[in-house]
Amino acid sequence: MKQHYAILALFAVTLALSGCLTAERKSYKISMTGKQSGTCTITFHNIVSPKEEGRDISFKDFAELVTDYVEGEKIENELAGCRNVKKRLYEKDGKLNGEIVFDFDSLSTLKMFKYDENSPVMMYFGTSQETFIESNGTYGGDNMPVAFWPPQTTSMTLSTKISDPNPDAVSLTAQYRKWKK
């Protein structure tokens, strides 16, 4: 089994875990190693399975999470240009989290942009299913849904909300515990 952070997805900065799976929030940690290259860690916090027409489909959703994302290459296919990918699922505070770590050679892999050496690094959220929570950069607000970091920034952090906690959603922690055995 490949060790790679499940999520990611950033990749596609709007990377959704799947058609049914969701997570409460997502955090990004980006370390630049060159003008356009670096390493990124994306963490999905509290991965859950929403009920489908009142039915618990968490077994199917967990199988998809493992098969397509952790052991499969869905993340790599959605994050064109990512390499040296490591994925993992883990439990923290009774909730299932997924994490992906990878290297990139272009900010475009992360759906980010920097016009020239004097321009800020930018990440756009206008078409994303994610909502900005916080960052070590500056957020342009609802009218300009872009996170900005100063031109020489080498370490960027960002947290986004993916979905509101759904009281009917089923935690995947029990499925994860069985799978780990």
Question: How does this structure look, described?
Answer:
With 181 residues, this protein is mainly beta. The protein has one domain (22-176). Helix content is 14%, strand content 38%. It has 3 helices and 11 strands, in the order ββααβββββββββα. It has helices at residues 58-70, 74-78, 173-180, and strands at residues 22-32, 38-49, 83-92, 95-104, 112-113, 121-124, 131-135, 138-139, 146-149, 155-161, 170-171. The strands form 2 sheets. Strands 1, 2, 3, 4, 7, 10 and 11 form a 7-stranded antiparallel beta sheet that branches. It has a 4-stranded antiparallel beta sheet with strand order 5-6-9-8, with no helix packed on it. A hairpin with a 7-residue loop joins strand 5 and strand 6 (121-124). The longest helix has 13 residues, at 58-70. The radius of gyration is 16 Å and the shape is globular. The two termini are 14 Å apart.
